[in-house]
Amino acid sequence: MTGATARDDARYDYVLVGGGLQNGLIALALLARDPGARVLLVEQGEALGGNHTWSFHEGTIPAAMLGVLARLTEHRWPRYRVRFPGVARVVEHPYATVSSERFHAVVSEAFAAAPNARLQLATRALEVGAEHAVLEGGERVTGVVVVDARGPDAGALPAETGFQKFVGLEVELADDLADPGTAELIDATVPQRGGFRFVYTLPFGPRRALVEDTVFANEPDLDEAGMRAAVLAYCERRGMRVTAILREEKGVLPMPWRPTTAMRATPPLVAGYQGGWFHPATGYSVPVAARLAAFVAERPPGAVFGADLAALVREQEEQARFGYLLNELLFKATAPEKRFGVFEHFYEHPDELILRFYGLELTAADKRRMFLRRPPPGVSFLKAARVLPGWLLGRR
Ligand SMILES: Cc1cc2nc3c(=O)[nH]c(=O)nc-3n(C[C@H](O)[C@H](O)[C@H](O)COP(=O)(O)OP(=O)(O)OC[C@H]3O[C@@H](n4cnc5c(N)ncnc54)[C@H](O)[C@@H]3O)c2cc1C
């Protein structure tokens, strides 16, 4: 525990349950605005942020949160590249990465420097209510605002979902990378087995990179050994001579086509992945979590719930609905080996539309453009015809 010690009344302005991405961003935004804020952050693990590498497109971050994200950023590239069999392009948008270790260090420091803030690690919240939480050991804490962001594992796995699966190796290389200033988000020129498959390469230094094999598949099983071998074979093919494997990460992220729970604008604030504050079609949570963090931090605690939050929830629901539609079309109406074509087609759109897509800020014109002007190739018209009417009529 750092910062202020538990007080007898254990009353706070903000009780943040779950020390992951969402509540870390809220805490940093609150303490940046008011270092005297009375904030409690409760995390069940020994450290904040689990074992993640969170990447994001800088242009998707609200202006009010750029300072917070800059403190968290470990690596940044001014541009990124994508490669498909028929399209290769560089997009001049900055891209950045936050590691769990840095996240833990920055959030912990912010709490240590704040006189009225308390960081409670290794403590599970047993109960979370509108204005209170009960912690392991029996302590009861109250907050004007309680934020419940216990993450994807806190909810049930969506019944209808595809999966984004990956195995990544952080590798040390014998030679300098050809272009360490450009992140490579997608190289889909690799064999398309079991779904849309691509390799993701983030240069972490002249001779260090994170190389990840990724597949968008209908089944959640992770072929760890096969994907690890695929990463090493890819490095060899691209002329990257691996001298050491420094770290490994793996994951399976649901890509559902129905929300698991209804979003809510009433206390407690159910936030982060658990509350629907994420991008269903990309798995990127940073922009949406940052938007909610800015919203919470820019008003007094007594004014968080109300018409403005209800409007923000509606906006997120509407944007997410389009993401769910894309997932349903991808996983139900497009043959696994043709899925890459949907993404290849997407990267033919203008840079600004691409950025709005990642930021979950698409306009109605963007949505029309993505579908109507030139529908993505590979999508079965017959299968799509079963999905689209319900979506257009607002029934999903
Ligand atoms: C494989 C994979 C790759 C991803 N890549 C990206 C990416 O590049 N960019 C991006 O933006 N997003 C990415 N995401 C998504 C992102 O990691 C999550 O959506 C995001 O972390 C959700 O934030 P959160 O705060 O809701 O949950 P989490 O970050 O999971 O945090 C929840 C926290 O709550 C804690 N907790 C749970 N229950 C309790 C309890 N009872 N008491 C106390 N604490 C509790 C957990 O220990 C955890 O630390 C990825 C996800 C996966 C699986």
Rg for CA atoms: 21 Å
Query: Which structural class do the helices and strands define?
Result: alpha/beta
Number of strands: 18
State the end-to-end CA separation.
44 Å
**CATH architecture grouping of the largest domain:** 3-Layer(bba) Sandwich
> What small molecules does this complex bind?
flavin-adenine dinucleotide
CATH topology of the largest domain, what is it called?
Answer: FAD/NAD(P)-binding domain
> Percent helix among the residues?
25-40%
Average pLDDT taken over every residue:
92
Element-by-element helix/strand order:
EEHEEHEEEEHEEEEEEEEHEEHHHHHH
- Note the main sheet: 8 strands, mixed
What would the keywords be for this entry?
seven-stranded mixed beta sheet; FAD/NAD(P)-binding domain; single chain; alpha/beta; eight-stranded mixed beta sheet; disordered N terminus; 396 residues; Alpha-Beta Plaits; binds flavin-adenine dinucleotide
Mind explaining what this structure looks like?
This protein has helices spanning about 20-35, 65-70, 100-110, 225-235, 285-295, 305-335, 340-345, 350-360, 365-375, 380-390; strands at about 1-5, 10-15, 40, 55, 75, 80-85, 90, 95-100, 120, 125-130, 130-135, 140-150, 160-175, 180-185, 195-205, 210-215, 240-255, 270. It is of the alpha/beta class. The protein folds into 2 domains: about 1-75 and about 95-155 and about 260-315, FAD/NAD(P)-binding domain (3-Layer(bba) Sandwich); about 160-255, Alpha-Beta Plaits, CATH 3.30.70. Strand 15 (about 195-205) and strand 16 form a beta hairpin. Helix 1 (about 20-35) packs parallel to helix 3, helix 1 packs parallel to helix 5 and helix 6 runs antiparallel to helix 10 (about 380-390). It starts with a strand and ends with a helix. The relative contact order is 0.15. Residues about 1-10 have low confidence and may be disordered. Bound molecules: flavin-adenine dinucleotide (FAD). Flavin-adenine dinucleotide (FAD) binds next to helix 1, strand 4 and strand 17.
